[in-house]
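Dear colleagues,

I hope this message finds you well. In preparation for our joint manuscript, I am sending the Acetyltransferase (GNAT) domain-containing protein (Actinacidiphila guanduensis) sequence together with its predicted structure, so that both groups work from identical material. I would be grateful if you could confirm receipt.
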Amino acid sequence: MKAADSLAALTSDLRVGTVAPNQALEWGTVMMSAFGFTSAGKAELVAARVGLPNFRQYAVWEGQRMVAVAALYFNGECANLMSAGTLPEARGRGAQTALLAARIRDAAAAGCRWVVAETGAEAPGEPNTSLRNMMRAGFELLYERVTWSWHA
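The corresponding structure tokens are as follows:
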């Protein structure tokens, strides 16, 4: 995997860092909003992971406003990148690249030998920015799988 330091830097008005427990609900709200989920209770559900053992949450702030989020799960020598999203108005400014770099660095510092992630595949006319960010960071595609979803 490429060194995290080789990834592009954030624009100067953004900063990346870890999320404190008192920021959990804001983190959950940004994550759900980034994916278009606005139903009551969803932000609280994901915010409950902040501070749990083996989880670490990250955010990108524009001034005092959280605009992008992500998480890292540690499992022995393996770290799993998860829960990454950026608010629509903040996209295209390097937030997810910075979150990738921060999580990769922290996984390496924790002694992880592997870092894994999942995202959707690209289809004709449907690019996947997350997949492209991961490939630029040095990830290798290992396999594709079918994901079933239920719609009421």
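For the figure legend, we might mention the following. The two ends are 40 Å apart (CA to CA). The mean pLDDT is 90.

With kind regards,
E.M.
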